[in-house]
Structures are given as structure tokens and as C-alpha cells.
Amino acid sequence: MDKVYMTRAFNFSAGHRLFIEGLSEEENKEIFDKCANPRGHGHDYRVEIMFNGDISPDTGMIISRDEMDGSVNEIINDFDYKRIDLEIPYFKKYQSTVENIALYIWEKMFKKYKNRLSYIKVWENERSYFEYHEEELR
Ligand code: NI
Fold first, then answer.
1. pTM for the structure as a whole
2. Separation of CA 9 and ligand 1 centre (Å)
3. Mind listing the pLDDT tens digit for each residue in 54-68?
4. How close is the Cα of 30 to the center of ligand 1, in Å?
5. Which residue of 54, 71, 94, 118 pairs with 50 in a disulfide if CB–CB is 3.0 to 4.6 A?
6. pLDDT tens digits, residue range 7-55?
7. To 10 degrees, what angle do helices 65-76 and 98-113 make?
8. What's the 41 CA to ligand 1 centre distance in angstroms?
């Protein structure tokens, strides 16, 4: 069968603050820079998710766009216009860095799509993105 890869992009806006409890404001600023701002701040995030699959002889597609959009939007809606570190329980325990956001989305999507998930990229700004995939790129 012919394996095809498809990447789909999603956007959400959210606020957060990065800080380690127990450290002073100066120490937090040293580690997290502007993201330690005590009043929080926002980002326009972009999420790219790559899927792989064999082309179905019936539909001619590798995956249902609607179903996939539904799965991703379900996760992303939890983030949209929220204060990530205060409103999503997982990020009360783990820092709301892009690295952790990418891993969080990966784990939720992986439960459903398993090996059909190739990678996830999360952009926090236009300069850099963080990528998560299993050890071996599929
Ligand atoms: Ni930030």
C-alpha cells in the first residue's frame, strides 16, 4: 500500500505564566524571562499535526478530516482563551512550556490514533516551534 502523510494546522490563543514556586521573582525571571511576568501574558499558538496512513481504496483518503478535526478541536478547545497554568489541571503540575504543551497534545492524540500519528509541532511565536514524535520518525 502507498503510505501518505498529511499535515493539518490548528490555532488557539491562550495565556500563561511560567514560574517555579519557592523561587523569588528575580530567580524566576532569570529562568523564564518574560514568561515569568507575575500577571501572565498571552500567545497565539499554532499546532501542526502530521498523520500517516494507507490510502483507502474506497474513500481515496488516508483519514477522515472531520473525525480528525473533531479530535484535535476537542483538545484545543480546552486551551483556547484560557489561562493554561491556572485552568488546565495538568499544567498546575507541569510547567506550561511549549515543550509540555506539545507532549500533552501528543499523548491525548496518541491514545486514539496510535501509529498513525507521525508528529506534532507547536509554535508559540513565529520564530520557533517544538516538535514531538516517538523515537523513530514514522
Ligand atoms: Ni510565554
1. 0.92
2. 20
3. 999 999 999 999 999
4. 14
5. 118
6. 999 999 999 999 999 999 999 999 999 999 999 999 999 999 999 999 9
7. 140
8. 6
Distance 125 CA to ligand 1 centre (A): 9
Can you give the residue ranges of every domain in the chain?
3-137
β 41-54/129-132 pair status: unpaired
- Give, in order, the Cα–Cα distances in Å from 125 to each of 12, 29, 46, 53: 12, 19, 8, 30
Q: Which residue has the cell 501509529?
A: 115
- Find the 136 Cα to ligand 1 centroid distance in Å: 29
**3-state secondary structure at position 5:** strand
Counting other chains too, the contacts that 124-127 makes at CB distance below 8 Å and 24 or more residues apart are 124/43, 124/45, 124/98, 125/43
| CATH code, residues 3-137 | 3.30.479.10
- How do 3-16 and 41-54 pair as beta strands? antiparallel
Q: How far is the CA of 17 from the centre of ligand 1 (A)?
A: 6
